[in-house]
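Usage

Read records sequentially. Each one opens with the input sequence:
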Amino acid sequence: MKTVFLARRLFTPVEEIQDALVVVEDGKVSELGSRSRSPLPSHAKVVDFGESVLTPGFFDIHMHGGAGVDAMRASASEFSRLGKFLIQHGVTAYFPTTVAAPLDATYKALERLADAIEAAESDGAANGHSVEARPLGIHLEGPFLSHKRRGVHPPEYLVEPTLKIFNELWQAARGHARILTIAPEISGAIEVIAEAARRGVCVSIGHSDADMPVARKAVNSGARHATHTFNAMRPLDHRQPGIIGEVLSDDGITADVIADGIHVSPEVVKVFLQAKGSERAVLITDAISATGMPDGKYQLGPIEVDVKDGKCTANNSLAGSVLTMDRAVRNVTQFSTWSLRDAVRAATLNPASAVRMTDLYGAFKPGARADFAVLSPEGNVLKTIVGGQGF
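and closes with the structure output:
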């Protein structure tokens, strides 16, 4: 049966459609346009969201958990709880992200994450009725990180990159590793970057003390993204710009930022957005299990984190965030001159494009999954639709 969704505006997000109409059939978008030019299909159920704004579902490619659930330690039932929490904030797809841990523990976590991804795929193929955000791939944040720029990652769990270890991570994840954050200056990194890119992994440079020539070599070897720009990176210098100089000046790569006003000041978020532009800037949350929970102590993989007044710390270092994606979108409109549509693009199409999944995710178009958020004109989430369900 066809369902028709109506709203005052729709962000594809490349363009804006007024008096929007979206036709959904079998969990996918079959038609979209303006009501003035697209008549309502006969015998279709009509859902009218009034003055709201329809956007693609948010896609968080770097998050460690939420609602008390830690991605590296979660059971199957906990992933369902996490998914239900995420849709409250407009997120319909996400990449659970690891932190540096003992390799054996990491391999076991990757197997559990692969189980969760395959279970979500199976459920979607079976009926498409689970109204919760779906894990689509794994982000490996480590263990190939710089000791100098490791941030909160335990130094004893960092290892030099080798093809052998990368292949073991790949096998444990059963091919679901979609992003690899790596410090390109470490011995063996360039070889691993090239191999990961050959396998279709989005290689992201980060947690790095690299100078600009090494960062550029990584990009030339296959890296195409940057992880939480400014955080855990050699600081920008006007004569020796380093890795940040490459990230901000290279128009061929995408980059993400944690727009919570804590990890990066609002003014520097504005500089980042101006440098990367509306096509290459990506919003992430770096959210941990404490997101949506009261202050206290929480886990980030093997790390115990103190959470107080919206700030997450361990050993005097920032340890992820309690940012939600809808808040990140609204923050961007407040920190910069970007419109709500620009901010939505950075949370939808741009991350999907960075990981090359725009065939089904990140944009309203015929054939895409009917995963979308219903926002107020101010960007607050009113409803989230997953596979055409949830209204």
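Summary fields computed downstream for this record:
- The longest helix spans residues 103-126.
- The chain has one domain: 57-359.
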